[in-house]
Every structure is written in structure tokens, then in C-alpha cells.
Specification:
The protein is built from nine helices and seven strands; from the N terminus they run ααβαβαβαβαβαβααβ. It is an alpha/beta fold. A seven-stranded parallel beta sheet has the order 3-2-1-4-5-6-7, with helices on both faces. Bound molecules: nicotinamide-adenine-dinucleotide.
Length: about 300
């Protein structure tokens, strides 16, 4: 008797599930137009993109690529002449010859961070993409005499300034369904024997993106990191270059454009379902970098 009752109840429950969860209630695909729009996903016309540390190296590559893709860009750093040189290149590369905003700012100064953001909003009226790229990477070990001085310097530029700028930018990014991309490193993933502070700070940056993804996702803001491997920039030339090439499965060192392409992907509508991710762009170096710790 009890088993008949149980079977009857299960049948009713199954019927209810069938009624409440019919296939018609789900969306299984986007429209044809959504598929077609992917062909246009790298068009950043009318988008405003701010990239810190864009007066040289990887940041310079990022503002140049966004200019090619039609965006209005903010070029910023500490040296006016470098900023101006990069801004001129951006204008030349921009399809509509858009003039970038040039801002001299020291990211360790709160007043400069406010000026950077206020000038951006005053000039362009909004912010769509914030790329926290500026960073320093001096060697540090636990036994060095000036360790804590360097530790504070690295954390102030590579992490504190990032947090402060995101804090200031959120109200504007909320209005545009904007996105944040922080330039981390494969140093966040694999320890290097002389990178005590840098390994620690870049790991924190990766976790920052994951935590902010939780807080800012419901506001429509995506937060990710891009983690480069070895990239040739003028401020840092390493006598390990040949060793890096050998250790990189794709057998070359990266250039700023390799990183900029990854940033443009994360900022694009192609990445509209990606947040809290740490995208490695390194030619595969991370899998061999541990070998550099063996003397
Ligand atoms: P870079 O020296 O060319 O660029 C660093 C930029 O940060 C410069 O424009 C500099 O002016 C700016 N900056 C530094 N301190 C600043 C401050 N106090 N205020 C304002 N701006 C400041 O070096 P890069 O290699 O292009 O570095 C860019 C980012 O890429 C960094 O976050 C770095 O950690 C990361 N990265 C670089 C490599 C690489 O191999 N080059 C690898 C992994 C990650």
C-alpha cells in the first residue's frame, strides 16, 4: 500500500517537474544577429580607454592597438615627453585621427589619481575600459638590506594604486557596463628565487580580480587580469633573453602587441561572459620558468 502511495507521489512530482521545466522555458542559442556581431567585436569606436603606464612598453602597445580599433585613449605616465610621443603615434594610427588625452601622473599620489580620472571624464564624458598596466619589478630577496623599502615601493605601485584607481572608477564603469583589466604576470603563478615582492604582489592582483568579479559582476562590470610572460620592452633588457627563448615552447619572446591583443579580447564583447579570469599570454613559458631557479 505504502509503495503504491510512494509511486503515485513520485509520478505527480515528475509531472510537476515536466510542467515547470519544459524545454520551451530555456534559451539554448543566441540569434543569428548575435553570431554576426562577433565579426565586429574588435570595433571600439566611441569607447573610452584609460591605460596606466602607457608612456612606454606594454602600456604603449595597448593604447596604440586601442587607437587602431577606433577608441578614444588616455595616455599617462610620469614623463611628459614620452606621453606626448606615444599620443602622437596613437593619433596617427587612429582611423579618425582622434587626439588622445595626455595626463602626467604619479600613481603613488592620491591627488594625481583623482586628477587622472577627473580629466578623463571632463574630456571624454565617460570611461569604458580601465587597464591597470603600470608596474615595477625590481629583484627582492628576504636577506637584502633594503627589502622593506622595495617591498613598499612595489606594493604601492603594483597593487595599492590599482585598488585606489578601481575604487575611484567604479561609479563611472557602472554607467557604461565597463571593464577592468589588470596587467599581472606569470610571476603570480610560478615562484622565482629573486622575486619575493613581485611574485607576492602579482598573486594578490590575480586574487583581487576574482574578488572584484564577485562584487562588481552584479553591477555589470567585469574584472580580469592578463598575465604576460617575457616581453621585450626598452626599460628592461635581460641577458637571459636567449634562455627565455629556449624556455618558451613557442620559441620567441613576446612584444607589446602580443599582450595588447589579449587585452583587446578581454575588453571586447567576445569576452562578455568572462570575469575573474587570469589570462596567461606567454608562449607557454610558465611551464618551464621554474628551471631559472636552478643555479
Ligand atoms: P615599462 O617600464 O616599459 O612600463 C612600466 C610603466 O609604468 C612605465 O610607463 C612607467 O612610467 C609606469 N610607472 C612606473 N611607476 C609609476 C608611477 N609611480 N606612476 C606612474 N607610472 C608609473 O615596463 P613593462 O614591462 O611594459 O611593464 C608594464 C606591466 O607589465 C607591469 O605591470 C609589469 O609588471 C608587467 N609585465 C611585464 C613583463 C615583461 O616581460 N616586460 C612580463 C610580465 C608582466
Amino acid at each position: 500500500m505504502q509503495s503504491i502511495l510512494l509511486i503515485t507521489l513520485l509520478s505527480i512530482a515528475a509531472a510537476v517537474v515536466t510542467v515547470t521545466a519544459s524545454a520551451d522555458d530555456y534559451v539554448f542559442d543566441y540569434s543569428d544577429d548575435d553570431y554576426r556581431s562577433v565579426a565586429n567585436s574588435r570595433n571600439f569606436t566611441d569607447k573610452v580607454v584609460l591605460v596606466t603606464g602607457s608612456s612606454s612598453g606594454i602600456g604603449e602597445g595597448i593604447v596604440k592597438l586601442f587607437s587602431v580599433l577606433g577608441a578614444r585613449v588616455v595616455v599617462t605616465g610620469r614623463k611628459e615627453a614620452d606621453i606626448h610621443r606615444v599620443a602622437q603615434d596613437c593619433q596617427r594610427l587612429s582611423p579618425n585621427k582622434l587626439k588622445p588625452l595626455e595626463v602626467v601622473a604619479d600613481l603613488t599620489k592620491s591627488a594625481d589619481l583623482s586628477t587622472l580620472l577627473n580629466e578623463t571624464i571632463k574630456t571624454f564624458g565617460k570611461l569604458d575600459v580601465l587597464v591597470n598596466n603600470a608596474g615595477i619589478y625590481p629583484a627582492t630577496t628576504i636577506d637584502q638590506t633594503n627589502l622593506l623599502q622595495l617591498w613598499d615601493q612595489i606594493f604601492n605601485i603594483d597593487l595599492r594604486a590599482v585598488v585606489e584607481l578601481i575604487h575611484l572608477a567604479v561609479p563611472y564603469l557602472e554607467k557604461t557596463n565597463g571593464t577592468v583589466i589588470d596587467i599581472s604576470s606569470i610571476s603570480s603563478l610560478a615562484p622565482m628565487i629573486d622575486k619575493l615582492a613581485y611574485n607576492s604582489v602579482k598573486s594578490s592582483l590575480d586574487m583581487l580580480a576574482r574578488v572584484l568579479a564577485l562584487e562588481l559582476g552584479p553591477k555589470g562590470i567585469r574584472v580580469n587580469t592578463l598575465n604576460p610572460g617575457a616581453v621585450n620592452v626598452k626599460s628592461y633588457t635581460s641577458d637571459l633573453s636567449n634562455d627565455y627563448i629556449k624556455a618558451t615552447p613557442l620559441r620567441r619572446i613576446g612584444l607589446p602587441l602580443d599582450i595588447a591583443k589579449g587585452v583587446a579580447f578581454l575588453a571586447s564583447t567576445d569576452a562578455s561572459f568572462i570575469t575573474g579570469a587570469n589570462l596567461v599570454v606567454d608562449g607557454g613559458l610558465v611551464y618551464n620558468i621554474g628551471g631559472f631557479n636552478i643555479k
